[in-house]
Design brief:
Number of helices: 8
Distance between the termini: 8 Å
Number of strands: 8
Strand content: 15-25%
EC number: 5.1.3.1
Organism: Streptomyces thermocarboxydovorans
Keywords: Carbohydrate metabolism, Isomerase, Metal-binding
Mean pLDDT: 96
Helix content: 25-40%
Pfam families: Ribul_P_3_epim
Catalytic activity: D-ribulose 5-phosphate = D-xylulose 5-phosphate
Largest sheet: 8 strands, parallel
Length: 228
């Protein structure tokens, strides 16, 4: 499966989101962080902004819901135009039912794990998902330092995906940059969310290309990718 780079608009200029989306043309997805100031101690944007952004860009939207009651709200983000919707398993009441509802509405279903949440209890749920997100910082704020203690968890997750022969994307989010993306790719990630590393660059589109090149080179040498 090819490497994918998803710039996070959490680090973009919220007053010019259409222009900021255009600035990273060539990215695979735009990562949209939705926070409710309850599940995480921060408040960002919601359904109306996602609707507007979906109309303003051809790049598909990858909505990461850091909110309480995703069972209630996640389907609305599909209706708003998201092509992929990620809910946190720590907040979901019925994750399998929710994943199936997201898929039934036409989007990719993704489940996120906070740093302290192990992947192993959810092994049986993996076939219900299109992507699994391993957070490499505590969710809630951009610009945090990458937690390298998550690398073994990424490796274990990739082993579970390969064990079951799943075409499941493995996303990492938090502190992904030129200095960390190769470690993530070597551990098994293939979808990379990058905020300040992209939007903090003088040329965001070039930053996307450079990160992609780094991740592709690391993946080509990674033991997990051999034969896949």
């Amino acid at each position: 499966m090819p490497v994918q780079i998803n710039p996070s608009i959490l680090s973009a200029d919220f007053a010019n989101l259409a222009a900021e989306a255009e600035a990273v043309r060539g990215a695979d997805w735009l990562h949209v962080d939705v926070m409710d100031n309850h599940f995480v101690p921060n408040l960002t944007l919601g359904v109306p902004v996602v609707e507007s952004l979906a109309r303003a860009t051809d790049t598909p939207l990858d909505c990461h819901l850091m909110i309480e009651a995703p069972d209630r709200w996640a389907p609305q983000y599909v209706e708003a135009g998201a092509g992929s919707v990620t809910f946190h398993v720590e907040a979901a009441a019925a994750p399998v039912r929710l994943a199936r509802e997201i898929r039934a509405k036409g989007a990719r279903a993704s489940m996120a794990l906070k740093p302290a949440t192990p992947v192993e209890p959810y092994e049986d749920l993996l076939p219900e998902l299109d992507m699994l997100l391993v957070m490499t910082v505590e969710p809630g704020f951009g610009g945090q330092a990458f937690l390298d203690i998550m690398l073994p968890k990424i490796r274990r997750t990739r082993e579970l995906i390969n064990k079951h022969g799943l075409e499941l994307w493995l996303q990492v989010d938090g502190g992904v940059s030129a200095s960390t993306i190769e470690q993530c790719a070597d551990a098994g990630a293939d979808v990379f969310v990058a905020g300040s590393a992209v939007y903090g660059a003088s040329d965001p589109a070039e930053a996307v290309r450079a990160l992609r090149n780094q991740a592709e080179a690391a993946t080509a040498k990674a033991s997990w990718a051999c034969g896949h």
